[in-house]
Structures are given as structure tokens and as C-alpha cells.
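To whoever is covering the structure queue this week,

Two jobs came back overnight. Logging them here so there's a record in the thread.

Job A:
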Amino acid sequence: PYTGRMGLLSLSDNQKVEEALSLVHALDIAEQPFSQVSDGQKQRILLARAICQEPEILLLDEPTSFLDIRHKIDLLCVLRGLARRGMTILMSLHEIDLAMKVSDYLICVKGDTIEAYGTPEEVMSGERIQKMYELERGSFNELLGSAELPKPAGEADVFVLSCGGSGIPVFRRLQREGRGFLAGILYTNDLDYPVAKALAEEVIFEEPFMPIRQETFEKACEKICQVSTVLNAGFPKGTYNQKMQELLLFAKESGKRIEG
């Protein structure tokens, strides 16, 4: 990690510099003046400088700041690779979705207090995030690693039919538009369910691995009667969700406006 008395780089030193620049995808700017590159590029150059010194411990303060999504992922992949080589990496991150995906262990700090320590699976829960950040509006889903904005205000006038993730972009669009909505019939292990639960006024749900019960179907029909629009975000046709097809037919026969 040190140069000789004259500050000259050896062949081995130059190789380490080139390897470090390659690791952080910065070879293309290697000849540019440091003062003339972007903030994100400076982040990568500074990381390369640290890497080529071959430290045992790397301390990083918000290393993903100023980076676009591609370079965030590239950087975190580099850090995971260094960790696999035996380097210890300590870093602070405000991006909790990234922290829980890249870290072996997390320390959750609030003010000057350590709130929790452990693996991401042990310490990251929506309830803990809600408490730590004093979230009064919106929510954080630890399964998807995503934050959701508050539910739309006002009475729901749309019922969304969806399955397997087809509803998520629809739920978020309705939230942006400030349109309250209902969602169903969703199995509780469906990808759509946690987002619907965070954003919908009410979710009509069913337990996994069983056909939709008649009482659940009737409850969904009651809710459809209360709205003017049924938005079909898409769902596969199968034995277990036969009631979803019947629900769409019920909406059409009830004179509801059908979108999607």
C-alpha cells in the first residue's frame, strides 16, 4: 500500500491501480483530471484508491450517494466481492432497501442509540422501521424492500382485480392520482398482497393454497356494488381462482365500468 522513497509506482503498483479502477468501472476516466469528473465518478475513484491500498478493513460513509441505479448495483457487487475475499467492510447507508440486501449484519442507529444489531432477517421489519423513523404516513415493506406512500384519502370508488404482481403498478398509479380503491381477491402470499395492504382502503383476501371460498366471493361482490369502476389488472385463469372470473362477470352484469 506504500510507494518508495521517491513516490514512484512499481509495475506491481500500477497493476493494482488498474485492477482497482477496473473493479469500480472507472478505467474509461482514468486519464481525466479528478476535478473534472462527476460526483458519482469521484465516488468510484475514491473507492478504487482505497481498494488498491489493500486494506483489511474498509470504512465507507454513504458510498452510494450521487450514484445512479446501475452504478449503485455495480458498487455493491464490488463490495460483496471484496467481502468474499476476506475484507471487512463497514459502511453507513440511508438506503435501507440496499442495506438489507447487501449486508451480512446491520446496526440500526437512531440518534446516538443502537436500536438493533443482527442479520437483516433478524432486525429488518416494517414495524421496526416504522418506529425508528417515526413514520406517521406511508410504510416500509421488509419483504419487498420498498417504501409505500400513504393511502389515498377519500372514499374508494375503484375495485382492482389482480394477481401475481399485475396489480402493483396499478395500485401505485391510483395512489399517485389520489383515487381510493379496494383490491381483491388476493391470496395472502400473493406478490400483490403487501402492496395492496399498504395502499388500498380494504383488501379482500383468501388464505393460500385453497379455492376461493363462497363467503369471500360474496364479500367481494358486496364491495364491487359500492364502487363505480372495476379495474382488471390481469389474472391467470385456473381452477383455484375460478371465482375471480366469476367476479369479473358479476361486475359486467352489474353495469360497472370495466377498465383494463
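Job B:
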Amino acid sequence: MVHETDFEDITINLDKLNSLIVSMAEVLFFTGMDVLLLIKACNFAAERHSLQRRKDVQQTPYINHLIGVANILTSEGGVTDCATIAAALLHDTIEDTATSSQEIAELFGEEISQIVQECSDDKSLSSQVRKQLQIENAATHSFKAKLVQLADKLHNLRDLERATPVGWNSARIKEYFLWSKLVVSQLKGTNEVLEAAIDDVINRNLCKF
């Protein structure tokens, strides 16, 4: 759910984002090195996605989605693993920006790079093929990648419930909810809280059609 704007840039208040990361880290009792890693990941994601916005009418800066995914992991999913949270902040950099897996590995380590790779679609493939591969591959992913995928799906579904993306009709909305249900079915047993939250938002919206 991303597109590039015609604007030269999107102003991101990095100081505010960094303060948010520090506050979250204090609650989770992260080490100083963990805090630095998360701030680095947040800044990197904000810079790489600076020309991108979400598809809602408000054209929300894309970094909001990435922080939202990380926040879901920590505040709802109970995730305290720094690598997983950093990967959540970076999970769309390979797929949606000119960032390579090697670059992520060099800057953030092999583990985080691997998680991000698992969460990335191959944009050279058609949308239909990519969606089918998400269903087929979800169950084979690592536990940490599955956590990021659950939080990503939950944030996207809540966004879709809150505001219809520009150009979407009811049929496309229904299709997205149905497809998400298939993907999440392959992630069962990863995190009961996140899975229940996803089931709730899907069922609440599918009954409208």
C-alpha cells in the first residue's frame, strides 16, 4: 500500500521519531546498543521511504506504517526482541526502495537482513503471483519473520478499515480481506494475540459484504 508522491520530499520529524524509539526502549528495558540500533533503523527507513506515502486520502507518510507495525509488535504482541522490531521498521525497504539485502546486512546484520528478505515480495512478478506466493511461502518463514508479517497485516487491515485507499472499490476491499485471511491462516501458532486481533478485524469487515 505505497506510492511515490510528486512532492520533492516529505518532511519527517526524525527527532520526534527518535524520542518515540527511546521511550519504547525504556519500557522494554533495551540496552544502549539496542536503542542505537532501533534509532538507526528508524532513521534509515524514514530516509529511504521519504518520497512515499500511503494510499489513503490523507496521503499519510509511509514511515507511519512502519512505526505502526513495530508498535503493534511491542504493545500488543508482547515482542521484546530487538532484531524483530528493527526488521519491522525495515521490512519494506528491499521491496519498495532502492535498498539491497546486502546493504541491510552490512548496516544491521545478517539476521535482520534475512527477516526483511522473508517479508519482501519480488516486484518483478505480477501482483497476482506475488499474492499467491505469500500464501504458499508464509508457513515456511522463520518465527521472527512471521511475527513481522502478522503485525504488518494487522496494521494494513486496520488502515483499510479506517479509510478506503484511493481508487479502491468494495470488491477490491473484500478481496484484500479474503486474501489476508488466507495468508494469516498459514501463520497460525505464531502469536495468539495478534492472530486473534487479525481475525476480529477480518470478520468484522467481511460481514459487511
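Note for Job B: The CA atoms of residues 98 and 187 lie 28 Å apart.

Please reply-all if you pick these up so we don't duplicate work.
Q.
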